Amino acid sequence: MEYEVKKGKKGFVSPIRRLVFPKAGRRAAFRTSVSRRPLHSMPLYPPDYLIDPQILLCDYLEKEVKFLGHLTWVTSSLNPSSRDELLQLLDTARQLKELPLKTTAEQDSILSLSARCLLLTWRDNEELILRIPTHEIAAASYLQDDALHLLVLKTGLGVDPVPAGVDASPG
């Protein structure tokens, strides 16, 4: 009984305990214990950030991104060049809890670009999220809203991107 009372009290914490068991240090040690492979990338230089087309034809390029979500209920009449429509769509999706309000480390993912397809995989376990062939991308839009840089892709009609965990082989 007396032990439970002492445990519930908040008061002086030993400086030695703070040095040996810091809360922030435990979190940082947990994050760094997961080793991540280096990305297959190359530097991009302003103002144009151009990539040699031969790299995309014969190879691929990877960039680390945060995956917010995949919206399947969007109508095909959405104008991807309209900033207002896209921001309104994002606000609606956040209100419906289909997109997160804040980005976290769990949303880290890898965007792989090549001339043939666009792959999106989780950063830690590299499970497939989406695979979209480039010929099925109808439009791409880039938005900068506050501190977020958003890439919105509109795929053609009848397109069914391969979600994670689904076998895409015929039959």
Task: Explain what this protein looks like in three dimensions.
The strands form 2 sheets. The protein has a 4-stranded antiparallel sheet, with no helix packed on it. The chain has a two-stranded antiparallel ribbon with strand order 5-6. The protein is globular. It has a domain at 43-72 and 81-96 and 118-162: PH-domain like (Roll), CATH 2.30.29. The chain starts with a helix and ends in a 16-residue tail after the last strand. The chain contains 5 helices and 6 strands; from the N terminus they run ααααβαβββββ. The chain has helices spanning 2-8, 15-20, 23-33, 53-58, 83-95, and strands at 61-66, 108-113, 117-122, 128-133, 137-145, 148-155. The protein is α+β, with helices and mostly antiparallel strands and 171 residues long.
Describe this structure in a few short sentences:
The chain has 171 residues and is of the alpha+beta class.
Structural class of the helices, strands and pairings?
A: alpha+beta
Radius of gyration (Å): 22 Å
Major sheet: arrangement of strands? 1-2-3-4
Architecture (CATH level 2) name of the domain at 43-72 and 81-96 and 118-162: Roll
| Tally of DSSP helical segments | 5
The biggest sheet amounts to: 4 strands, antiparallel
Q: State the CATH superfamily name of the domain at 43-72 and 81-96 and 118-162.
A: Pleckstrin-homology domain (PH domain)/Phosphotyrosine-binding domain (PTB)
CATH class type of the domain at 43-72 and 81-96 and 118-162 = Mainly Beta
**Shape call:** globular
Kindly report the CATH topology of the domain at 43-72 and 81-96 and 118-162. Answer: PH-domain like
% residues in beta strands: 15-25%
Mean pLDDT: 76
Family: Belongs to the CCM2 family.
Protein name: Cerebral cavernous malformations 2 protein-like
